[in-house]
Amino acid sequence: MVGFGLLLLENHAAHTVKLTSFEQNSCKAENSKLAFELAISPAAGPQPYSNTPPLCRSAIIQKIGCLSLACPQPDRFAFDPLLGLACLSAARRLINMAKLNKIVDYLDQALEHAAFSDASLNGLQVEGASEVTKAAYAVDAAITTAEKAAEIGANFLIVHHGIFWGKAEAVRGSRKRLLEVLLGNDISLFASHLPLDAHKTWGNNYSLAGLLEMSSLQSVLPYGGQLIGCMGVNEKALSIDAIVERLAALPGADKKMQTLRFGPEIPQRIAVCSGSAADGLTRFQEDGFDTFITGESKQFAYHFAKDNNLNAIFAGHYATETVGVKNIAEEIKNKFGVDYEFIDCPTGI
Ligand SMILES: [Zn+2]
Questions:
Q1: Domains of the chain (ranges plus CATH)?
Q2: What's the CA-to-centroid distance between 113 and ligand 1, angstroms?
Q3: Which of 29, 41, 173, 215 has CA atoms 20 to 30 A from the CA of 152?
Q4: Ligand 1 mean position, distance from CA 238 (Å)
Q5: Share of the chain above pLDDT 70, in %
Q6: Distance from the CA of 304 to the center of ligand 1, in angstroms?
Q7: Count of beta carbons in the 10 Å neighbourhood of residue 74
Q8: What confidence tens digit (pLDDT) does each residue in 206-222 have?
């Protein structure tokens, strides 16, 4: 029914506590009383909670108590089974908290941020709480999405479009208000732009290719020193209508997305590049595709597609970039145990 935790007091002198491990076990205490075991230091070994100096106990109680309202009378938690269970759950949450810097280091490496020449400042753009308790993901960093993240209690916001691009810009006006929302709520902002378009597992383009069940995937479209698009074979012989139908299921997608039908009704080879990549159409000869999918259109695209017998589908900048950020959130959940929510804030663009 119950377990007992192993608490490790890391900094005895400062009376600060860090829980470093928690093991499920059967409760050995009699009369349904809970036993916490405490290690004053790794060398001292575990000691029963009740034998620890009162000051240390109070430090532990404060740490657990302040992190969880589930323990209203923390003084009693070692002796009251119900309060004890509440504290065990608080302790478990404490242990499950993920360090911000560990998550950021992991993502920076996995997304190969350093390999891209990108106007976006990829990685941690704003530092909030050092422990990540809940994540949120959105396509754009904006006052609306930051306020929503605060509302749902997230302190780690993952976006595709961050707030720092290219040249240095003053923190004033809406930028100031956005930063006030983030910093005022201890919310970290993490952005990944081109690297998240290109990534072969989590990226927007490989994910959209997966949605269309394309095969023989390869990276195409050089940009920022890397290949950021994805091209493959239309393995399922999907018609243009069937492709549009699948893309229309993306969050924020316009069911009547603009489609230029000047190529084969059933495409052979499809290139995908999310966002605003209409210029990628011009790569059809080098890359060998007959159908191109991106987010936003451009004026030149109509005649270019017509003159070269190409299909082009403009599935929406927002819609095509909802997939990569979700994959990051899912990865953080699986690897670090951080729950997340999607902040859907479609732009219609
Ligand atoms: Zn974009």
A1: 4-96 (no CATH), 98-196+323-342 (3.40.1390.30), 200-317 (3.40.1390.30)
A2: 16
A3: 173
A4: 26
A5: 72
A6: 23
A7: 22
A8: 999 999 999 999 999 99
